[in-house]
Write a structure and sequence with these properties.
mainly alpha, Rhomboid-like fold, 190 residues, globular
């Protein structure tokens, strides 16, 4: 009997590619003392005449403020992403990531003019809520979904009201809402 050799597989191409891009952007950000991050991978109120304003609406999710910021998001993305990509496919996850990036940037641009936003935590929260839809069936609401919304999103609302830090609870809440909508639509279609 011949033993099968072990091999490393690129099992979640969308998630792995996203995390690798974030890694490279984080390294470049650190090497440039965050000037590359500010220029290309952070969204903030800027002129509509600047073409980078529109680019940053989508690229801000790749930028991170440093290693701990990147590693925290990467761990969740690598934990949840492969399961979600296997269940829903790469295309749906990419759509969820793009929608989350755009909506969080747009809300930040309109309602928080003095706040710069970067990082993939909105996408992490979209994945967390999307993962809670795993056992969804038509006409039912999974208890896991309710608990995730109450615990994760509820915590972000409380933190947003009572905590002053550099964490964008808005991005977390919006990401969670995008994850809920995408999860509902994806599961209803099946």
């Amino acid at each position: 009997m011949r033993k099968k050799k072990l091999s490393i597989t690129f099992n979640a191409p969308a998630v792995l590619s996203f995390v690798m891009i974030c890694f490279v952007v984080t390294v470049i950000g650190i090497l440039t003392n965050q000037s590359s991050t500010s220029l290309l991978f952070m969204t903030y109120r800027s002129s509509f005449l600047d073409p980078l304003t529109y680019l940053r609406f989508f690229t801000h999710v790749f930028g991170h403020g440093g290693w701990s910021h990147f590693l925290g998001n990467a761990c969740y993305l690598l934990l949840l992403g492969p399961m979600l990509e296997e269940k829903h496919g790469s295309k749906l996850l990419i759509i969820a990531m793009v929608i989350t990036a755009f909506v969080t940037a747009l809300i930040n641009f309109i309602f928080f003019p003095g706040v710069a936003l970067c990082g993939a935590s909105g996408i992490v929260f979209a994945f967390i809520v999307l993962a809670s839809f795993t056992g969804f069936k038509r006409g039912e609401i999974p208890l896991t979904f309710i608990l995730v919304v109450v615990i994760y999103i509820g915590q972000q609302v409380v933190d947003g009201l009572f905590t002053r830090d550099n964490i964008s609870q808005m991005a977390h809440i919006v990401g969670g809402l995008v994850g809920a909508v995408v999860g509902y639509i994806a599961n209803v279609r099946k």
